[in-house]
Amino acid sequence: xxxxxxxxxxxxxxxxxxxxxxxxxxxxxxxxxxxxxxxxxxxxxxxxxxxxxxxxxxxxxxxxxxxxxxxxxxxxxxxxxxxxxxxxxxxxxxxxxxxxxxxxxxxxxxxxxxxxxxxxxxxxxxxxxxxxxxxxxxxxxxxxxxxxxxxxxxxxxxxxxxxxxxxxxxxxxxxxxxxxxxxxxxxxxxxxxxxxxxxxxxxxxxxxxxxxxxxxxxxxxxxxxxxxxxxxxxxxxxxxxxxxxxxxxxxxxxxxxxxxxxxxxxxxxxxxxxx
Length: 275
What we know:
The protein is an alpha+beta fold. The chain has helices at 2-18, 27-30, 48-59, 68-90, 97-120, 127-140, 156-167, 172-179, 201-208, 242-268, and strands at residues 37-41, 44-47, 144-153, 190-194, 220-222, 225-236.
């Protein structure tokens, strides 16, 4: 959200800086109230359209929703924005490679958002599309969750030693509290409920191979170190009902449609990568 707001404000500044034309509006501009200036700054006109867009970006409200005092404050802020942008342009700030890149990216971002809105305007997802996406999401969902404990150490020799001690009768929780290197040690190594997709692959594979109450036969190595694992329990995951996630499914379908549009543009484009 912060990045989007910066892009919007950067675009407003660029738009305001480009609105050269003095204090008098032309005959054509006079026909459109949105093009009439709400202020001129050193001969540069700031249109009502620009002001309204600035207010919406800065406050989330329309200018009509603001009090007279708030509108005046907003206009003062826009004037300051124009003054600073104009001075920065005179000082050559826009020639800095990072600033120039940020301005170009903001331009592309605003145009992309506008293109997305226009393309998707008449492409509201149908019930059939939503159902199909729901089934696709269900097919990718894990069917089970696991609850396990682990003890994390940095070398295999220590892991094997601790595993042998637990097999001889030492309490897993006490060994974890004393020897484990991660934050779960205070809970006796308890990781809580999780799906395999949230864990690194070697760990997830080892957990899924265990039976309830079973210890891993050997320590399991991941990028974090060596793990001794005990599976506490498993449970089936109940997927959310279709009606509960219908709104989110709509966003996913729309995103895929726009992705398809961009894929077609990419296929038709002549792209030469030079990295």
